[in-house]
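Worked problem 6 (solution included).
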Amino acid sequence: MRIKILSTAEHDLEEGYRFYESQADGLGTYFLDTLYSDIDSLAYFAGIHRIVLGYHRLLSKRFPFAVYYRVANNEATVFSILDCRRNPSWIRKKLS
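Solution. The predicted structure is:
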């Protein structure tokens, strides 16, 4: 299965990187490595995750982030990568 990451999701990753890098040197890079590894797993496991707000939601293994994606025509399209600690109404608004 192919994986497509939209620019909105890339922007979410950049924000997460900046936040974690400001916490400790190298933590932002570890964040990106972890999230890209989680996203790469969609090549094998896309479509098995719970549907939340109309998107499949993959929870990251190491960080409190969720990858929201949809599957169509043998392609997993990543729409957003959001911090699960945010207000649920903010997450709903971001995904609408």
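Discussion: Residues 2-95 form a domain with the YaeB-like fold fold (CATH 3.30.2310.20).
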